[in-house]
Design a protein that fits this description.
By secondary structure, this protein is of the alpha+beta class. It has one domain (about 1-155). Helix content is about 30%, strand content about 20%. It contains one helix and four strands. A four-stranded antiparallel β-sheet has the order 1-2-3-4, with helices on one face. The radius of gyration is 23 Å and the shape is elongated. It starts with a helix and ends with a strand.
C-alpha cells in the first residue's frame, strides 16, 4: 500500500516538474514560427515595394497580366494581387527572394497571401486614376490568419 501511495505522489510530483518544460518548448516553437512568418511577410512586402506603381506596358487591372507566370516576371505592384504560396505539409513551397524554397522546418503549415487594392481618398475625383494603392500581406498557419502587414503607397499624378 505504501509503495502504491509513493508511486502516486511521485507521478504527481514529476508531472508538476515536467509541465513547465513542455509548455516552454511549445511556446518556443510558436514564437519561432511567428518570427519566421514576420520575416517572410516583410520580405514579400519589400519585394512588392521594389516594383513601380504603374505598369510599364500601360496595362490596367489588378493581378498579373498574361505571360507573367511567376513572381520573377511581375513588373509592377498590382501584379501581386491574388498571389499566394505555402501551406504544404510535407515540403516548403514558400519561395524566397533568391528563388529557392525556404529551408526551415517552422515553415510547414505557413502560407502568404497578397491583396492589392487601388484607393481613392476623400475628395479625390473617382473618375481619375487613384493616387494610392493598399498592399496587404497576410500570413496564415494551417489556413488561419495570424499576421497581416499593410502598406499604403502614394503615387503623385
Amino acid at each position: 500500500m505504501e509503495a502504491l501511495l509513493a508511486s502516486v505522489v511521485l507521478s504527481i510530483g514529476a508531472s508538476t516538474i515536467i509541465l513547465p518544460f513542455t509548455t516552454a518548448a511549445r511556446n518556443e516553437e510558436v514564437d519561432g514560427r511567428r518570427t519566421l512568418a514576420a520575416h517572410l511577410g516583410q520580405e514579400m512586402m519589400e519585394e512588392i515595394l521594389s516594383k513601380p506603381f504603374e505598369d510599364p506596358q500601360g496595362s490596367g487591372g489588378l493581378g498579373s497580366e498574361s505571360g507573367e507566370t511567376s513572381r520573377s516576371l511581375y513588373d509592377n505592384i498590382d501584379d501581386y494581387h491574388g498571389y499566394q504560396d505555402g501551406y504544404n505539409q510535407l515540403i516548403s513551397d514558400i519561395v524566397g527572394l533568391d528563388g529557392q524554397a525556404v529551408d526551415n522546418p517552422a515553415v510547414a503549415g505557413l502560407s502568404r497571401h497578397v491583396v492589392v487594392a487601388y484607393i481613392h481618398v476623400s475628395g479625390q475625383d473617382t473618375s481619375e486614376d487613384p493616387n494610392f494603392v493598399r498592399i496587404e500581406v497576410t500570413l496564415k498557419y494551417v489556413g488561419t490568419a495570424f499576421l497581416t502587414l499593410t502598406r499604403l503607397v502614394y503615387q503623385p499624378q
